[in-house]
Amino acid sequence: MSGAARRSQAFRLPGRHGYAVEFSPYLPGRLACAAAQYYGIAGCGTLAVLEQNEAGICLFRSFDWNDGLFDVTWSENNEHVLVTSSGDGSLQIWDTANPTGPLQVYKEHTQEVYSVDWSQTRGEQVVVSGSWDQTAKLWDPTVGRSLCTFKGHEGIIYSTIWSPHIPGCFASASGDQTLRIWDVKTPGVKVVIPGHQAEILSCDWCKYDENLLVTGAVDCSLKGWDLRNVRQPVFNLVGHTYAVRRVKFSPFHATLLASCSYDFTVRFWDFSKPNPLLETVEHHTEFTCGLDLSLHNHGQVADCAWDELVKIYTPSCLAAPV
């Protein structure tokens, strides 16, 4: 099944190419988008905080930075606070209640920071970042420097994602073709999975199974990995025609996930089904880079692309119970 999405709303960011979107964990209808000028190659970046209502999507706050912004994550303990990562190697902490500029800037990475994620397990308020300098770093937003640096990858780190189940555990995906699992309490890598014979651009954890992750790669495929036996993937989803840029598990269905790609599409999958591809949404005209699924509004999806558009919609396959 393919075509345009149901109940779609769009917001244009003129002169900005979208890299990441994330729904607020607190406020239904609030969405952050990290974007860059000139496809992230040069120019500045913008963090756009958007608000959805019956009339459509409006701009709630906008923050500019002097380099492209490549990822964004919301605080898990303050509804106003966000963290972005930038092409200049820095992380910025922003407060929508304080629209003058960043509260803090953390500059330790030596190359572009492509990934930032705020921990989701109770009792922890820490952030992990992943960089083209081949390192991941652990941050406490109340401390002005990194707490720890994780080395081991032999290529660009494109994605760093906290486990929603296991405190202090995060995954990283890299241009070295591996998925790695780390524990902040131990210095070395716990698990190395040679996931694809291509650069891995994204990873995510299943919300219902602490041992299951998905990777998306330049080989156009998504693969599922069970940490109890990583020798073979538990699923292999093919259909994209160019690199898979971002993968996300559903917050509501254990076997459902979404992916977006440089083929301009967003695809929805159920890996438990014989024909796992549920739907292909084709509503962008450029690389589709950002993707998120709402925790508040069942079936609602947001994405962004290099065509300057952010879209919020409900795909047909999520409009009814799966």
UniProtKB/TrEMBL annotation:
Compartments (UniProt record): Cytoplasm, Cytosol; Peroxisome matrix
Placement of WD repeats on the sequence: 72-95, 106-149, 150-186, 193-229, 237-279
Keyword Cytoplasm in annotation: yes
Gene Ontology process terms (BP): protein import into peroxisome matrix
CDD domains according to UniProt: WD40
A single Gene Ontology CC term: cytosol
Keyword RNA-binding: no
Molecular function per GO: peroxisome matrix targeting signal-2 binding
Keyword annotations from UniProtKB, A to Z: Cytoplasm, Peroxisome, Protein transport, Repeat, Transport, WD repeat
Pfam family, any one: WD40
PANTHER family to which the protein is assigned, alphabetical: PEROXISOMAL TARGETING SIGNAL 2 RECEPTOR
Family under the similarity heading: Belongs to the WD repeat peroxin-7 family.
Protein name per UniProt: Peroxin-7
Source organism of the structure: Mauremys mutica
